[in-house]
## 1
Amino acid sequence: GQQVMQIPQYQHVQEGEDFTTYCNSSTTLSNIQWYKQRPGGHPVFLIQLVKSGEVKKQKRLTFQFGEAKKNSSLHITATQTTDVGTYFCATMDSSYKLIFGSGTRLLVRP
Amino acid sequence: EAGVTQSPTHLIKTRGQQATLRCSPISGHTSVYWYQQALGLGLQFLLWYDEGEERNRGNFPPRFSGRQFPNYSSELNVNALELEDSALYLCASSPLGYEQYFGPGTRLTVT
C-alpha cells in the first residue's frame, strides 16, 4: 500500500532558527496534507496541496509539493515557542483513507 | 460551529474487558474516521464510516469494530482488551475526500 516517509524524526532548534520537515513517497501522490499536533493535543489540519510544484504560504510557514508529486516539505521561518509540536504529513488514497507519515517532533529552545 | 467531540476523555480497563468509545462529528460531516496513536507514535488508521456503513478498515484484528448511527455519530468497540491496546484513540470527521477534523481523543489505559 501507499506509504509516506517523514524526516527527521526530531528537530531541536533555538528560537528564531528555521525548521524544515520532509515527506517522501516512492509513488506519485495525488495530494498531500499537513497537520500539527501540539503536546497533549490532537492533530489540526494546516493545508492541502494537490498540484505539481505547488507552493503555499501561511505567515511563517511555507509548504511545497514536489514537481514529481513524490515529496513535500514544510518550512518554518524564525521559529517561535508556539511552533512546538509534531508535524505530520498525510496523503489520501483512492479509497479516501488518510495515510500519515511518522511525524517530525519540533522542540524550540527559548 | 461545534467541533468533533469524543467521550470519555479517559478510560481505564483491565485486560480481557471490552471498551466502548464514542464520537460525534461536526454537523454536516457524514464521514467518521478512527485512529490509534500509541504513546509517542504516529497515527494508525483503524476504521472509516460513511453514511452508516463501514467503508474501509486498517490492519487491526477483528476485535476492533464499530458502527455509525443514523445521526452520523460513531462508536468504536474494542473486545478482549490487551495491554498493547493502551493508546490515544482519535476520531475525525470530514466532508468526504477533504481534510479531517480531529476530536480531542480518548485515552485508553489497559492494566
## 2
Amino acid sequence: DAGITQSPRHKVTETGTPVTLRCHQTENHRYMYWYRQDPGHGLRLIHYSYGVKDTDKGEVSDGYSVSRSKTEDFLLTLESATSSQTSVYFCAISESVSGQETQYFGPGTRLLVL
Amino acid sequence: GDSVTQMEGPVTLSEEAFLTINCTYTATGYPSLFWYVQYPGEGLQLLLKATKADDKGSNKGFEATYRKETTSFHLEKGSVQVSDSAVYFCALTQGGNMLTFGGGTRLMVKP
C-alpha cells in the first residue's frame, strides 16, 4: 500500500460539464501520474508531475489539465467532459528502491460521461 | 516509440494447470520490465519486475525472465489457483517516468 487515495471513486456526469478528480498521497513522493484505462489499450499516461507546480504531458493529454499546488495532491480536470472520456482513471506515484523507480497505483475512479 | 505486446485473452485454465502469458517489447534503450495484476474492481498491483537482461523477477509463485535477445518477458506460474483469476499487464519504462503498458491479458481459472 503506497498510501494513495482517489476521490471520487465513481462519478456520473453529463457532456460539457467540468469534472475534477483528486489523487492524494501521504508519503511525500515527488512523482505522481494520471492514467486512463480502456479496454484493449491497457493504461495510457495522461499527465504527470515531478514536483509542486511542475507538470508535463503524457500520451493522451488532449482535453485534460492537471494541477499540483502541494506535494500530496494531484488534480486532474476535464474542462468540458465528452463521452470519449468515459474511462477508469488511475493515479500512481513513483518510488525509488535501490536506485530503481517503480510505480504504485491508487484504487481508481470510474467516470461515466453521458 | 516504445511498445509492449501481450497475447490476447482471455486465457482459460483449470486449477493447477501451467500458465504462460507472453509479452514482447520494442524499446530503443535498456528498459526495466514489469508485470502488474488487476483483480476485479481493484487497482493495479505490482507483481514482479526485472531491471536488466537475464534478471528473473518472482513473486507469489509467478516468474518472468528478462530476455534481451528475444525482447521478451513472459509470465509463468507452475500451478494456477482460482484466486489467480485477474487481468495481467506487462509494462516497461525507460528512466522511470513513463510506463508503457500492453493491452492486458485476462486469466480465468476454473475449479
